[in-house]
Amino acid sequence: MTRAVLKFxxxxxASPTALESVARIVxxxxxxxxVVVSATAGTTDALHLAAxxxxxxxxxxxxxxxxxxSKAHANLAAxxxxxxxxxxxxxxxxxxxxxxxxxHSVAVLRECTARTLDAIVxxxxxVSAPLIAALLKARGVKAEYVSAxxxxxxxxxxxxxxxxxxxxxxxxxxxxxxxxxxxxxxxVTGYAASTAEGVTTTLGRGGSDYSAAVLAAxxxxxxxxxxxxxxxxxxxxxxxxxxxxPLAKMSYAEAAELAYFGAxxxxxxxxxxxxxxxxxxxxLNTFAPAxxxxxxxxxxxxxxxxxxxxxxxxxLGLITVQGAGMxxxxxxxxxxxxxxxxxxxxxxxxxxxxxxxxxCLVVPAGSTERLKPALERMFSAELxxxxxxxxxxxxxxxxxxxxxxxxxxxxxxAARVFGALGRAKVNVMAIAQGxxxxxxxxVVSEPDREKAVRAIHEExxxx
Length: 463
Ligand code: ADP
Ligand code: ASP
Ligand code: MG
Hints:
By secondary structure, the protein is an alpha/beta fold. It has helices at 16-28, 43-55, 59-81, 86-109, 114-121, 123-138, 165-181, 208-218, 252-260, 271-277, 332-342, 368-378, 380-385, 413-423, 449-461; strands spanning 3-8, 32-37, 143-146, 185-189, 192-194, 200-202, 223-228, 249-251, 281-285, 294-297, 309-322, 349-352, 358-364, 390-403, 430-433, 439-445.
């Protein structure tokens, strides 16, 4: 008997039509299956908004947001379950009251700690999972709601907690295996987890994919199926490129690279637990379940393509530390990175010109305001001596990345990328190539971002 973990994302669980499709997919799946669900699309964002309102002392606004979310779920339950939805309705009311209570406490204290926030924002999965379990039961599937709290055990890094695999594996096997043996389909909350003591944590935004990968690894599943609203990983974000095509196969390395550079379709950390357990991951479409989708496997996939996909990540800033006196000075780059570390700024891309006259860092746009003065402080002596000329900031910028195993050892790829960008009149502000030769990434100004993605895609995917 095969065993699969099926994860359904936000848009897959947000409407009666989508949910009926989910029920059909789960019902027709042969073999053992565990279902993992996200909150309905937009709910987690709204919960974060409610928490921010409460933190500003606006309890009434926070409560209004909660009532809207609650009503949307009650409507879904009424549509799908009709008169059989009594228990689900009660569950929604109870959870809403609890979360409103938390928001009131936040409003009184005017403080929302990361720990409290996790307790608030997991409302979305805590209502969607039992709702979907009830729907599956109503459609003839022996399903049971299982909270991931007490099941996926993490450290206490609230907001982006890390699963503790040994303990998680023990609990997952003890809880889920007997159910699978009885033919029950567990419906587990994505995103949410808990510490060993039972305090609610979350796995980071978009973390339901991660939850599903952790469960797949803990259960030694044969396959992890991630159902979303597109038919697999595409050669570019379909919202940017009309002619983007789904890719049949890609390697974990390619998928991780794509995810890192903005292809939101899979969560970067998803890749890890699955890679380690060598479980194939399939990205499938809830709305077109017969489509082949994309299969992601551990080994490189050479399909004759050079650039397999083009992706982009916006909302960034480019910081350039420039000066002739930097060349050959040992420890210079180290001081740049000491500064970013001290400011707790994550660096997405680094590039240094061969003359060592400048070093460029790409960081989240919001962090440039504190990073520039921090770098100026770090290099104040060099600035006075003009060994460092200046610290420049360009914002907003975007990283555009071309990714593919076929680039390794293929000459002329960079020339084609830059030729295409030149013809599209896109100015490239910085360049980096991963040493794996799996990607070429470059920085462009935010207004040029979509044009750049389309130009590179057109160059390599003209059919
Ligand atoms: P879910 O709610 O199911 O987790 P997400 O919104 O997180 O779905 O991810 C799916 C979305 O990712 C798609 O609707 C698509 O717009 C976007 N996306 C970005 N880049 C790509 C890509 N290269 N291939 C497929 N989808 C992409
Ligand atoms: N609901 C969570 C989020 O929106 C997790 C997920 O959907 O994967 O971030
Ligand atoms: Mg997602």
